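Researcher: For the record, we're logging two predictions in this thread. I'll number them. Prediction 1 follows.
Model: Prediction 1, sequence and structure:
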Amino acid sequence: MRFKSAKTGPYQVLAVSGTNTISFAIAADKAGTKGLLGFAVERSDPQDKRDFYAFGFKVFPSVIPKPDETTKVKTSDHPVQSFVWDDFTAKPDHKYEYIFHPLKGTPKNLDRSGEPVAIRVQTEPLFSTLEHDIFFNRGVASSQAYTREFGNKKPDQLKGAKRTEALQWLSRDLDEAILKFIANAAKGDTLLCCFYEFRYPPVAEALRKALDDGVDVRVIVDAKNNGAKVKGKMQPPFPRTENLALIKKVKLPKANVFLREARTSAIQHNKFMVLLKGKQKTPAEVWTGSTNISDGGIHGQTNVGHWVRNGETAKKFQAYWEVLKSDPGGKDGEAAATVRANNKKFKDGVEGIIAAPTSWPKVKKGITTVFSPRSGPGVLNMYAQMVDEASDTSCITLAFGISKVFKDVLKDNKADGHIGFFLLEKEDKANPRTKDPFVQLNAKNNIYEAFGSFIAEPLYQWAKETNTRFLQLNSHVSYIHSKFLLKDPLGTDPIVVTGSANFSTASTNENDENMLVIRGNQRVADIYFTEFNRLFYHYYFRSVQERTRKMLSETEKKNRDRQSLFLDETDGWLAAYKPGSLKQKRVDMFKRMKGFADPWKGPSFRPNGGPPL
């Protein structure tokens, strides 16, 4: 939901809320900010009857000259020196009042007389009976937060309750949501499942229990014989080996398991379930998204699960499942002509389920499904056009780099065009294996990129972070595995594209994939936007550090690390908000936001203005 405060003095606060994350921006009249040292952020929680100042991440050096990893401060004394701020600790379906107190004076003698700005917000429910519920894992295993909570240890190195706590911190209800979807099936219902990786015992055991309880459970898994040599040693087929081992372990009957073995050069990349209700097998609900049924998918890399309660959408997924269950397409050992004919028949069958749009203006309000593989570049071109033709903002996650299709349409974008945010697994660099000239998208195109990274060494006096790769939760993609695109998410007609497919030719034309294109649903867009915002800026800071650190002298490193750790003791931090800067563009993006909700009613939790806890 989207909210704005009344204009108070030179300030007005704008906010957008998801389930666990709330993103804020403060619009300020420049004339009223002279001498501003930042904002103390107070959160009032009338539901839990708690009132406190938010914790700060930086300190005034004259007050705390030598902070370390044990240092904890509050924004009441060490304010937020930014016009954008996020609360990642909100509870779902919760009401809050935030009070932003402008602070002036000096670090040792703060002037708190400025009129505070209050804004009331409400978060979205995590589990609901609405058409869409959306679940993001933490996706930031590489973080100081994990290090502070659990040390530089893998979850399996922790014992008892601490291990459970670490896994819960990493999954953030994503595993609970998957299990709840399965448990939602009653006796006489049907669950049609289709998985690329099927390596997470709790889900397999839940499906086995559902089968025992009278649910008709049917599972398609990737079982392709695609073993390859790595450093001269033949590797077992992935994910076939582990998929079949878990199926055997939980004793899923062979009659209920369908092996996807044809087309070994492509992958069966789906991760969905379809719920059919009762003896009539009425399509009712769908679970989809980017989350593989694996430990790393749930606890490691960034992932999202999307629960849809829509009969027409479920009907389309049911039809797609029925196409896949016969293991269609060319098989190893067949004549080339036979392979081509079978592959065409397969793609024709997929495209026959629904005619996918190839131009975003033709996307209808509501939910449109897109299934792969399919022929031609139309769908991928449409995705690229969604980004290129956004009127205000676009966001996209890219696990395997930026496709040439996107670069071709974005390379002529200007710095004053729409703003785009790209979150990648790895830094975008020239590929020596391709003959195409390398196109670098950057601020000149109004495109800002972040990529998976961690703080490789202490920044001045900060704590060293645990590396996602060190946790060994994933072997292929360590950081950014989600696959979603947002077109104008803060407008009144947002488009969200989400599912299993990377935005690439292989995902569109070769692999078994599914995507949802959701148009005009502000609630869905707000949840995706706030989580993208959380992930992008977690990794943006780290990727900038990684990209530039090797180019700095030791003196320059210390100076920059000092800036990263300490607050400015004057209003000099305001200079970073000059027109055209990323910082100012972020504020302006919120100022253009549309579709505000009415704030919740009721008296202030602290009507007498008493001190916070």
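Researcher: Logged. Prediction 2.
Model: Prediction 2, sequence and structure:
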Amino acid sequence: MLIRQLQKVLTTPIIQKSRRNQSRLTVIFWYSLSLTFAVGYIIMGLRQALSSKYIVSDDAREYISWIYRYFNPDLFPGDLIADYFQSVTPIGYGIIYKIIAALDIDPILFSKVFPIVLGLITTSYCFVVCMQILPVPMVGFIASLLLNQSLCIHDDLFSATPRDFIYPLFLAFLYYSIRSSEFGILIVFALQCLMYPIIAFVDLLILFLRLFHWQNRQITISDNRKDFILFVAAIMIAGILILPYTIQSSQFGPTITAAVARTMPDYWHGGRVSYFSHNIVSYWFDGRDSGFFALIAPPQLLFGLLLPIILKFQSHFLLTKQVKDEVKLLLQVVIASLIMFFTAHALAFKLHWPSRYTHHTFKMVLALAAAISITLILDAIFQWSRQNGRQILILGTIIILGAGLVLYPSSLKVFPKTPYLEGQVPTLYNFLQKQPQNIVIASTSEEADNIPIFAQRTILVGKEYALPIHTKYYAQFRKRMIDLINAQYTEDINQIKDFIQKYHVTFWLLERSAFLPEYITKNTWLQQYQPAAQQANANLQKAVPVLATLINSCAVFETDNLVLLKTECIKVVTKT
């Protein structure tokens, strides 16, 4: 009797009209539980984010810094870094923050709170997509639970970048595809083109695959005229919405070629991108930017790989009869993602990193498939235990399964894993904010990465902004970096003055350890800029660089590890 009641609560499909009210309550319960866990995970992540105004997502520094131009158009005048990241920011993402600026809402605060909205939308669409494939409410709960755990293990929800919009929009696309809602599909597709254009290519391929059917081991063309109209309409929308974005970012193009990238340390282990690897398995399988199965966690998602096998043995898993034909959409997602993955490799790096086409979509597919697989297996165990009277076995299985799914995050050292970092020198940001808006700060310190977003002032270079993707941008960035290293470690005061004049540098931010040999030899970022780094190290072995002798006389701001020099003071120095 107990087993029958458990099976009724956990794995019985919502298909009987006579049980409509009870079914509605069951759906509400599991859906509410899904939202509860989602909100709980997000709040856990936001506790750190809201603990200080000088905390921000790591990657948000690239996308949000320039947005302060919406508040004050005079900020970042002639700023190469701000201009570049504004050009590569998807149009829809920029529009959202333009609205935020019009409402006078701090963009940093907004970037911290908005994950709650995205998380709730993601959870909701994940739940209803599952219900469309297998109408068992517990399936929706398991799928959303696994997906939210996965999002919180990596920075896929808290990054405050355009990629945070992938999950709610793509799941919405799947839902409207299952429902055959042409209007819903096109609206969501348009939003994807605006928010994260590369995933729109996966959508297009899915719509293309819908034009064909596999029947009796033969591929036939769909006789549904609406499918063709929908595909053509999507192509037109993509052209209208993605083309302006392509033109917008082309001013810093073209993208670097794979052949050239292989010669650059930036693209190998320890580099800014770390795309290539001497380990061919890692390169194709789990490389962060190059692998098709990168960053797939938690391991429970791998239950999704069992779904095709389970569906082949319907006689052993009776609940498979309730799995609807819409499950084939998951296969279409996998096929479309892999096509784009290999296309991105072939056209490197014109379509961005290949892993972006599988990393996100595979997570969603595996979460949905894993939830369905777990439920089908559990129902089969119910059937078996009823025939064999093994109630203890089924109770133990439910307890272990439930504990494993719900308590898994507690087994991790860090959960949720958020990408937040805290600016360490608020007094520096406050000092720089009081300076004119057209100042330029030169520095090899990683603390410089925080100046644009916390002080809204221009930096000459910064490790976080050293993206070697578009050639016109990175050629300028690399030249600046080499000139900076050469000037910082030279014995010639005239070389320093020429550098200051060339780049209109107002302040020079130094770490007190910057003139120790290990500062260069152990800094993987500086080591990418050769031969400047080697020459700087050689200079340190011979004599004290001029800049090191000016710290006491030209410093206008100091902390335990940082010193800010005013270049007006340096320019009047006459010694050589």
